[in-house]
Design goal:
The chain is α+β, with helices and mostly antiparallel strands and 429 residues long. Helices cover 57% and strands 13% of the residues. It starts with 11 loop residues before the first helix and ends with a strand.
């Protein structure tokens, strides 16, 4: 997913310049000041660089520019592997990855029950004394914990990664699926075409900031490890002076690597907010561009619709009944979203003149039951719904809205069906 979220506005030059070239220059300057003097050929190299800086060696300047361009291009092309390294994918199965993932999963298991406990305790305190200041403190802690859960932890324990940086990115990668049932891997390339160019540039700017921080952290860490290795294999006899001589330089680079990594986490959160906003703002434009004229009326109906669209695009040869491009007279929305339901509708004249009896059969084809089902019905022009006529073969049905007509049905067990019936009357009768 990370590879899909790169440079969507077409401003590649800006992304390369700020996100890759700047880290290369920063690392080069730091190494020139700190690392090169330690090498045997360091003084000669620094003298040559000084000549290039004042314009005395034009061919040297060309060679130096070529080296910088090659390093920048290489770093730009390995940006995705570096990001995945910092997310923890390549070493997740190692003993260190297992240990760090275990710690993050332990925190995941503790966070959600703690949030529920804080909410319950706060409500109990408010019931006893609405003015209790402790309830306000609990509310602040609950809010902070909720922000942490929704910005730094994915929605499932099996998706937890070893690093904080990886979990922040995975959290916003999963946002579209959790919020709307949209598979980001499938639909992001299509959504990009609907994003306003100005908004797309803000997403790229956020991503460029992440690239700068991650690349700077990577180069500083690489420099620190290189200085450490040079010190270990140097031919100087070990002594406190030599350890300090090499150690503070390596520590400085490694510290800078950690600092840039910490900044990368904050920038990745800002990047994630931009990506999440893109789904919030442009998903219905995408729905229209895909040819669907129906507009979901509820949260559960929208999740079910996007879930089916994602599945249909992923499995183009699926034998399942395709989604109608136009909303029919009958629509259903179930909780939890994604439960497989089949619906059929029949209209027959009643024994009473001018009255039509409508029967809607809902079958649960899933392996799990529904919490509830919302039934949306289109009453034809010239007819009106007859209040108190709604009935169901199992359980209860409640009319929740008259215009448009909405009815709420109780739980439908797995593998069972129910029939909802009601009557409409001609307005001319």
């Amino acid at each position: 997913m990370t590879s899909l979220l790169t440079s969507i506005s077409g401003q590649f030059g800006k992304a390369v310049f700020l996100g890759t070239l700047f880290p290369v220059l920063v690392a080069a300057i730091l190494n020139d000041l700190i690392t090169i003097p330690l090498l045997s050929f360091g003084p000669a190299l620094q003298k040559q660089l000084s000549r290039i800086a004042v314009g005395e060696d034009k061919w040297g300047a060309v060679l130096l520019a070529f080296i910088v361009v090659v390093a920048t291009g290489f770093l730009y092309n390995v940006n995705i592997p570096i990001l995945r390294l910092y997310e923890g994918y390549p070493w997740k199965e190692s003993w260190l990855g297992w240990l760090w993932t275990y710690r993050k999963k332990k925190r995941f298991r503790q966070a959600r029950p703690l949030r529920l406990a804080l909410r319950y305790l706060r409500r109990q305190l408010q019931a006893i004394d609405p003015e209790d200041p402790l309830a306000s403190d609990l509310q602040s802690q609950q809010t902070a914990l909720a922000l942490y859960i929704n910005s730094e932890l994915p929605d499932r324990e099996d998706l937890v990664l070893p690093t904080r940086f990886g979990n922040v990115i995975r959290c916003f990668e999963r946002y579209s699926d959790v919020a709307y049932g949209i598979d980001a891997i499938i639909l992001w390339p299509r959504l990009v075409a609907k994003i306003d160019p100005g908004f797309a540039s803000t997403i790229d700017e956020s991503k460029t900031s992440v690239d700068f921080m991650v690349n700077s952290s990577f180069l500083c860490t690489l420099s620190g490890l290189s200085v450490l290795l040079i010190g270990v294999f140097a031919r100087t006899p070990p002594s406190p002076e030599s350890v300090f001589h090499w150690g503070w330089r390596s520590s400085l680079f490694l510290t800078l690597g950690v600092v840039f990594y910490a900044f990368a986490i904050g920038r990745s959160k800002a990047w994630g907010e931009q990506v999440k906003s893109a789904f919030d703002l442009y998903r219905f434009d995408l729905l229209k561009s895909l040819g669907y004229q129906q507009q979901p009326a509820t949260y559960f109906e929208e999740k079910a619709l996007w879930d089916r669209i994602s599945s249909q695009l992923l499995y183009a040869d699926s034998r399942e009944k395709p989604i109608a491009y136009k909303a029919g007279a009958t629509r259903i929305s179930a909780s939890p979203a994604g439960v497989q339901l089949a619906v059929s509708r029949s209209v027959v004249p009643s024994v009473v003149a001018g009255v039509l009896d409508v029967e809607v059969t809902i079958e649960n084809k899933d392996s799990k039951k529904t919490d509830f089902v919302i039934l949306f019905e289109t009453v034809p022009d010239g007819y009106r719904f007859m209040a108190e006529s709604a009935r169901t073969s199992v359980g209860n049905v409640v009319v929740t809205n008259f215009a448009p007509l909405e009815m709420k049905v109780e739980t439908i067990a797995a593998g069972t069906r129910i029939t909802v019936s009601y009557a409409i009357k001609s307005s001319a009768t």
